[in-house]
Write a structure and sequence with these properties.
By secondary structure, the chain is an alpha/beta fold. It has a single domain, classed as Arginase, Chain A. The protein is 34% helix and 14% strand. It is globular and about 50 Å long.
Length: 302
């Protein structure tokens, strides 16, 4: 049976300040979850932490990405750490931070073999610097890991892309107001389903299509990215870019029961929950209860 390891990457380097002079609070996510018993409820066999470089608002002139050098440096160190953690019958739970931590996660997996990605997010995050309004890598991470964007971030250790487009399922986007935003990901080989397409196709069918791809391609495994803004705004409002609607906990359970029961599941990263936006802990406590119950499924897989 699998055991669980927790890795903390509390980086907020991929986000722009929500208000002047105040850095994004997502860096507090791991400590926040620990305070509310997330770690103890999972009972990990090991815990690791990697401190990020200091937060700045610096916009790199050559790439158009904030903190580009620091993010690339951090991704390399993340990769070094994760290569020692992932595998060995262990399911790895990475706690961000913002979505830019995915870069280091996928870099590690590229060095370890051939992996797929199930990308759960209320946005596509498939944006290049010329399209971005903020310069934040957290809104570009899916583009970066599939090889779109500046070489400084897309081609670390000359390993571009970190995951093949056709091995990525981008699920749950509900930012549909701008046609160019959606078309950018639809013009690739990434398998894209917004929230409403997911519901129309069926969660079970969509997930089965992904798992069948992993099996048919004989991949080494797959990773799950979960930006908590994929959840319904009424149950998870503590995010920087909220959108109406979103997955219910019932829908998330249906999806995760299928993904986490598969032997090829290597790990998950959880990002964007900002403790400062949930001062009463109401939404975080419900999230922790639901997610730990689901993640503990991996301990039952032989």
């Amino acid at each position: 049976m699998k055991s669980i390891a927790i890795v903390e990457f509390p980086s907020n380097l991929g986000l722009k300040e929500l208000k002047p002079g105040h850095e994004p609070g997502v860096r507090k996510l791991p400590e926040w979850l620990r305070k509310h018993q997330f770690h103890s409820l999972l009972g990990p066999v090991a815990e690791y932490r990697l401190e990020p470089p200091p937060y700045t608002m610096n916009l790199d002139k050559t790439t158009g990405v904030r903190n580009a050098d620091a993010i690339a440096e951090y991704a390399g160190k993340q990769s070094d750490m994760l290569q020692k953690v992932i595998g060995n019958n262990t399911f790895t739970v990475v706690l961000g931070g913002d979505c830019s931590v995915l870069i280091g996660n996928m870099l590690a997996l590229k060095k370890m073999g051939n992996y797929a990605l199930f990308y759960l997010d209320g946005h596509t995050d498939f944006v290049t610097p010329d399209m971005s309004q903020t310069g934040g890598a957290a809104g570009m991470d899916l583009a970066i890991i599939t090889g779109y964007g500046p070489q400084k971030l897309t081609n670390i250790d000359k390993l571009k892309p970190y995951v093949k487009e056709e091995q990525v399922w981008c699920i749950g986007n509900r930012y549909l107001d701008e046609e160019d935003y959606v078309n950018a990901v639809k013009e690739t080989s990434i398998h894209y389903s917004d929230l409403y397409q997911l519901r129309e196709n069926g969660i079970g069918k969509t997930t089965a299509e992904f798992l069948n791809m992993v099996k048919s391609r004989k991949l080494d495994g797959f990773w799950i990215h979960m930006d908590v803004d994929v959840l319904n705004h009424n149950i998870m409002p503590a995010v920087d870019s909220p959108q109406p609607d979103g997955l219910t906990y019932e829908e998330l359970s249906e999806l995760f029961l299928l993904l986490l029961s598969d032997k090829k599941a290597a790990g998950i990263n959880i990002t964007i929950l900002d403790p400062e936006l949930d001062p009463t802990s109401e939404f975080s406590l419900a999230f922790i209860d639901q997610l730990t119950r689901l993640l503990n499924i991996v301990k039952t897989i032989e």
